[in-house]
Amino acid sequence: MITTDHIRNFSIIAHIDHGKSTLADRILEITGLVSDRDKRDQYLDKLELERERGITIKAQTVRIPYRAKDGKDYILNLIDTPGHVDFSYEVSRSLAACEGALLVVDASQGVEAQTLANVYLALDHDLEVIPVLNKIDLPSADPERVKKEIEEIIGLDCKDALAVSAKSGLNVDQVLERIITHLPAPKGDPQAPLKALIFDSWYDSYQGVVVLFRILEGSLRLGERIQICSTKDNFEVTKLGAFSPEPVEFKAMGPGEVGFLCAAMKELGDAPVGDTITKPDNPTPTPFPGFKKIQPMVFAGLYPVEPAEYETLKVALEKLHLNDAAFSYEPETSTALGFGFRCGFLGLLHIEIVQERLEREFEAKLITTAPSVIYKVTTHKGEEMSIDNPSRMPDPVLIAAVREPFVRMEIHVPNEYVGNVLKICEEKRGLQKDIRYLTSTRVTITYEMPFAEIMYDFFDKLKSGTRGYASLDYEIMDYREADLVKLDILINADPVDAFSVIVHRQNAAHIGRSLALKLKRSIPRQMFEVVIQAAIGKKIIAKERVAPFRKDVIAKCYGGDISRKRKLLEKQKEGKRRMRRMGNVEIPQEAFLAVLKAGDE
Amino acid sequence: MPRLYGEIPAPKAKKQAPAPKPAGRPILVYVHVPFCRSKCHYCAFHSQAFNQVTFAWYLKTLLAEIALWGHRLQHPRVTTLYFGGGTPSLFPLSALAQVMDALRANFAFEDGLEASIEANPDSACDVSFFRALLSFGFNRLSLGVQSFEDAHLALLGRPHNARQAVETFTLARQAGFGNVSLDLMYGLPGQRTNHWLEQLKSAVRLRPEHLSCYGLTPEPDTRLTRSLELGEFVLPEEREQSRMFVHGAEYLESEGYLHYEISNFARMGFACRHNQGYWQGRDYLGLGPSAVSTIGSRRFTNPRWMDAYDAAVRGNFAGLDFEELDAGTRLKELVLLSLRTVEGLDLKAYRKLAGRDLLKSEPALMQTLRQNDLIRVKKGRLSLTKTGMLVSNSIISRLI
Fold it and tell me: Is the pLDDT of residue A41 over 80?
């Protein structure tokens, strides 16, 4: 066991593309941990998806032995955190496992919103933050301006800010030295009862759940019995070690250390993120504060494209759930789409990630319905219910009140776009809370806004309204009552449950028109007219028609033609089998996607 | 076409499968004449340039094939006979007489046999030719007129002009043909509905007994399709084509022609029984290269090239390589063929074959189709309306 003086635990905070992964790669190389032979870009991002999208979904840790200029040997634990608003709870747990953080800022781009959110989170956890200006070798780099920006916006002293190029390796060695000299060593009494924070976990089909933890107090030995504080479940540690970056096993670990353990846990729920590990014979009286169970916030239906692939999809969801505690699923049936699943997610990015993983890793072909938040409905009889599927909304006459989740949102934007952002937020029923000029050109706009409004074309609008310069961060606040109605889509007078959405009454007409138009454009002409209507209850608020096609006929069919023509018609029939039939209208999958992407033209 | 020349020795017959058994009713006989003076630009049928050597070879093989089938099917009764092509009117009269004699000798022609022959205005231009056809027993003539507009005929690559077409019709009448059909095409490049109606008026002025009106269909690997792909012509748009179909049919009906099949119109009593036989699912025997037969539950196609056709006939294995039509396929064909006709589908016959009631098994679809005036159900039969016929592929593909 190593003494705490020689340990430094840190994470890297950076906006996407500001060079976090490149810096991590460089640190691994300089310390000799990864040889050239094993080198690959963005070493820490294990999932194919993470590497491709440049975002980290799961936390990673790497134990880096480092001999400093003072001649002493240190252990640096780099804890790489997920980097998206959908995963802010995981981020906060990862930060809680560190004493300090590197704030990596692109020396030409300056501070971005996502960075800010995580810096504030780090400061909330009393982390020591070391500013690092990256991409200093680019001609557009303006380190003085960016330093000033960091000082003004975050209030960090940038007098000694490091200027590096993670790409070329310039000054990266100074980063390591600065970690040793500036970050505090962890504290903790090795004799105290065990108190270790779980900051991530995943499922491995050979070892069960692998838990990433940070020991705060006490020590842990291989083969000891441990207890999970929230559940009081006991397990025996069968494997103990750290990633360096390949797994290295230890007999025992002490305070300040970061590592992994396996303990024959069968599901992620056995080791929830944010929970505390202790020992059943001598439990800690003070588990790590702030533990909360992760709850999915956004729901969508996932349906197999081919009804016969229901079982395949089910197996894929089961596997996915093993590794993603924030993702939930349960069977549901839709009249339009048949048998499928109602799935819960943390946010829109999470939906996309799950969808892509299902399609890529499990080769499941999916139809995804429009995402919905959870609404809380109170009936006149005083019943309370949670609605995560718009088609399950009770009849309006039974409803006394509907409440919806609100988020507090911070949007960071150059000042010339403030007008556009305010307009978009007002359209989205946002309540303005604050406009702060961080510098003369950078503004933070704070709004409280219905979460559901983010589901519906908000990001696209924000992006086009600010030419991509806005960044944002949000957190769920509370539930508030609102005048919400269910908007149904009828195709040739038959309601299609999978198209139903819950909207605010004042936006219903607008959204109804937009949905009807989208559908009109994605439903191919059929042999009869298709009428698409948007309705609230019995009231039709928008209507579009798809004109029928006029001619689809074989001119000649005599003795020599029959087999060929029959095969032609069989093929035509086969082509239609891939469509969903509602009423007698054939609806291609694209129509479901079109609704999902329902934005303005 | 090098493969046309030189006989190849007849291979040994394959293991003999029993000959197909006709359903007992008289059969239809089709004779394919694969010769043309020139290739029309829209045509994807099998035909070749006429020459004496190839024709002699064809004639010899055809006569052998007639004898073969007369023997195999045990002198079957024949209710209709149809010479199509190609251009049957290119047939030298003496040879045609030989073929008709051979057919009479090997098959039992029923009383009231309908015997049709196709003729082109360019190859049948004197009255004695038509008199000879009548003397051989032909009693129905189908003239490939296609258009009364020379510019359109040139565009289609037809080797005749409009005046020749009218003259040929007149000659046939003079010779004594009392049942003449004209083939016309609509939806030609640049054509409008009014122009099509003018064409029909020109046809009706001649008072033919029968009219076949085909929408021009670009077939793969034809000169027309290539021209369209190159943008040399543009076909009328779908809406215009559908107007031609509906207004043309209404006009012909007002002139006393019954719209009895998607592309066919006839004055009372003059519907083509041979073609009706196809749509009713009757057994038919196709003779000549590339001809298709359906006998009992077997469908087979003669080889397309003379050498292979000749080998198949001499080797006595014509018709042995067949497609077996199972009950499901027969049912599909019943639906697809009968819905082309004005009588439509016999729902009782359908129920018997399918073991289910079509109307009851798809109530919502039937209701929608009726509401949109695409089908009608009357006296136990389901048939397509004119607009239904126009989208018949979509309807049929939902029902099969």
Answer: no
Comparing alpha-carbon positions, the chain A residue that sits nearest to B276 is A558
Token readout for B199 is 């064409």
Residue B215, pLDDT score = 94
Task: Name the token pair of B149.
Answer: 């507009």
Whether B292 and chain A come into contact, CB under 8 Å, resolves to yes
| Cα maximum dimension of chain A | 96
Q: Which two tokens mark A1?
A: 């066991």
Distance from C-alpha of A83 to C-alpha of A116, rounded to nearest angstrom: 12
Residue A553 per-residue DSSP state: -
Which tokens is A540 given?
A: 């039709």
DSSP B165-176: HHHHHHHHHHHT
Nearest to B262 among A549, A553, A573 (CB): A553
Under the banding of pLDDT at 50, 70 and 90, the label for residue B5 is very low
Give the pLDDT score at A352: 83
Question: For B368, which of A528, A559, A560 is closest by C-beta distance?
Answer: A528
In 3D, which of B276, B280, B281, B278 has the Cα closest to residue B266?
B276
Cis bond leading into B289, ω under 30°? Answer: no
Q: What pLDDT shows up at residue A441?
A: 76
Query: Is the bond preceding residue B86 a cis peptide, omega within 30 degrees?
Result: yes
Q: Which residues of A touch B30 (CB under 8 A)?
A: 559-560
DSSP 8-class letter at B161? -
Residue A191 has pLDDT above 60, yes or no: yes
- For residues A579, A582, A585, A586, the Cα torsion angle rounded to the nearest 10 degrees is 0
Q: How many CB atoms lie within 10 A of CB B214?
A: 17
Which residues, 6 or more positions from B68, have their beta carbon under 8 angstroms from its beta carbon? B313, B316, B318
pLDDT tens, residue by residue, A127-136 = 999 999 999 9
Among the ranges given (A40-49, A234-243, B51-60, B263-272), the one the predictor scored with the smallest mean pLDDT:
A40-49
Average pLDDT across chain A, whole number: 86
Whole-prediction pTM value? Answer: 0.68
Pairing of strands A225-228, A276-278: antiparallel
Quick check: A489 and A516 in contact, CB under 8 A? yes
Decide the pairing of beta strands A442-450 and A471-481: unpaired
Contact assessment for residue A400 and residue A441, using Cβ atoms and an 8 Å cutoff: no
Q: How many CB pairs under 8 A join A and B?
A: 118
* pLDDT (tens digit per residue) in A558-591: 988 999 999 999 988 887 766 777 767 888 877 8
| Tens digits of residue pLDDT in A94-129 | 889 999 999 999 999 888 766 777 787 788 788 999
Token pair in block for residue A91: 């981020």
Output the CA–CA distances (angstroms, integers) from residue B196 to B183, B191, B353, in the order listed: 13, 7, 41
Residue spans of beta strands (DSSP E) within A21-80 = 60-67, 73-80
A340 phi, psi to nearest 5 deg? -160, -155
Residue that has been written with the tokens 């309807």 in this structure: B395
In the sheet that holds B264-266, the strands lie side by side as B258-261, B264-266, B210-215, B180-186, B140-146, B108-119, B77-85, B27-33, B284-287, B292-295, B298-301, B322-324
Taking contacts as CB-CB distances below 8 angstroms, the residues of chain B near A528 are: 368-369, 371-372, 374
Chain B residues in contact with A548 by the CB 8 A cut-off are: 372, 391
Domains of chain B by start residue, with CATH: 27-278 (3.80.30.20), 327-399 (1.10.10.920)
The pLDDT assigned to A3 comes to 85
> How many alpha carbons fall within 13 Å on the CB side of residue B63?
13
